[in-house]
Amino acid sequence: MKRLLPIVDRDSSLIVVYLATVLIAGGILAYLSINSISNFRELTEKRVSEEEKEIHSAYVSHFRYVLDGLTGELRGQAQEHMEDLEESAEPITHPLVSDYLIISKNGALIRPHFSIQEGVTPPGSKTGFSNWYELGEQQEFQNEDFVAAETAYSRALERADAACDSAKAINALSRLYNKLKQAERARGHYQSLIGEFGLCTNRFGIPYAYFGVDRLLRVESASPISESKSLVAEFLQNLVGNQIAFTSTTTGLLDTISEHQVLTSDPKIAGLILAARGKLFQIERYRPVLKELLEGKLGWEANKVNDFVMVPPSAAGNDLFAVYESSEVLYGFVIPFELLDQQARTGLKWDGYNFGYEVITRKRSLNPQGMKAFLEFEGTINPCFPNEVLLVRPKNPDEIHDFVFMRKLITYLGLTLLVAAMIIGLYMLVQDVNRKKKMARLRTDFVANVTHELKTPLTSINMFADSILLNRYRSDEGLKKYARIILKESEKLKRMVNNILEFARQENNKVFYELREENIAEIIHQVMEEMDYWLYAHNFEVQVELDESLYAMVDAEGLKQVLSNLITNAIKYSPEDKRIAIRSYMRVKEICIDVEDHGIGIPQEQQDSIFKKFYRVSEEPGAEASGTGLGLTVSKEIIEAMNGTLTVRSSPGKGSIFTITLYTIAS
Ligand code: ADP
Description:
Radius of gyration: 62 Å
Bound molecules: adenosine-5'-diphosphate
Mean pLDDT: 86
Structural class: alpha+beta
């Protein structure tokens, strides 16, 4: 017993340690989880903001890179362009540039050609041309002699040296043919004004081609407008293509053209009108800028990229105007923001992040400060575009909510499972310790019980052997009686020792039974013979009903041990109604042996436990019926080793029936 106590103590302290660990670990975990969950939303939102900032800065640096590359290329092209500016240079083209303007250092717009009304033309040399031309005018306007006028103008044309003198004469002739209603001839002259002399202007700076078109469309025109369509288209084409100069009267002319449904219904002409108006718009907008830069009114050094002065878009516009100064001229490039934006986006990846984002470029004014929605990041793009901002925001804000929610769920679930596992572990530990404690107590009881059990027969044997030795008997019959008592007590002792040994062997898995075909009734008879003495000694009424024909594969000694255990129990636990019945019979395909008594019976809830080792219904040592608690344990093991079963039916106060079931041998 002393040896067993420390085990119990150790287990108890184990529970305390475990309990403390569970409590501390559980507490720490709960604290950490709750803490981390409350921080988790904040952390996620922070991460979203970080990623949005990253996307923004990647875009911004790419944008700058694109702008740097573009200005570098444009500078190279402008320098090349300069070299043959005089001979009609190839236009500068770049995918990111929508158009460009060139202004000379004296303020004249070279591209697109824009002729300014100067009001004065340098007096022409009084050559043959002038004389004939003036004569023509005289004949045309004063004398209204158109034939003479035609001759004079034609003479002037023949003598024209400068290109623009020819244009002047052709213009006069076309005017004349118009008056003479010679449509074909007039149109031929318009054709050359439009096609060949687009850059020639009169002394008011108006290109002669304008007069041609104007006359074509006027009511007094000699030919129907539909026939003039291709000529108007050519005029517009040359205007947009920089072959005919723009002037302050261009808008008026374009309006005149637009009045004619026959012309505007042609998509080509409509498109060209639009393009021409666009150019005019650009001239109006950027010419003053270029002039101001020439005059040094704008800070030339301010906001420079790669030697380009950057003129940011005005509130209404979307184009950057990048101006480059070369030795002779100023180049102004029109760079639409959309094109730069597109270029900055190519090659950038938005999908390497934890969440999906959309990246929008928009005007700053659309979203005033403080009105930003949930988890939106807004930042400037480039100093050249002070009004454009980049907005980065989650494509689907619900995705972030769901992510946080799932994390919470997993953490809480994990925590719950962990706590549950800890509690189950604790419960199992307590159970285990209780079982160990119970076993320890049963073992202790067992030792006391065995001592008691062994003592009783030994005392009898000792006493009767003593009497025989001291001749304390009256007759031979008395001697025999004493000897029989010694024999029966020693048999009882043997049975008890056998049970203990059998149990020890079973515990060590060292039991081997030899199964042989045996007559069951015969074995029961032998046991009854052995037990007769005790049944008689305790005044039992015994009823034996046996089917003598039953054979089974059994270990005879084992079965005998089981039967004598059952009969011993029947005797022990029948203090009043001393009736015992032994029966053997066939039930379906099984052989059954009943040992029935009318004793104290066994409560229902303990009927399983009585087969467990050391288990006794009354566990106090030295109780009325003593025992070791091993008999039924050993018996069940033996029967099961013979492939049979040992069961009990019992009700307290009425008695018990123990039934051995064995299987028949196939005959
Ligand atoms: P024991 O040596 O205590 O008899 P057993 O293993 O043979 O050990 O029996 C276990 C317990 O089962 C007994 O302590 C007793 O309480 C109960 N028991 C066994 N047989 C009977 C019976 N025939 N009538 C009533 N109780 C019984």
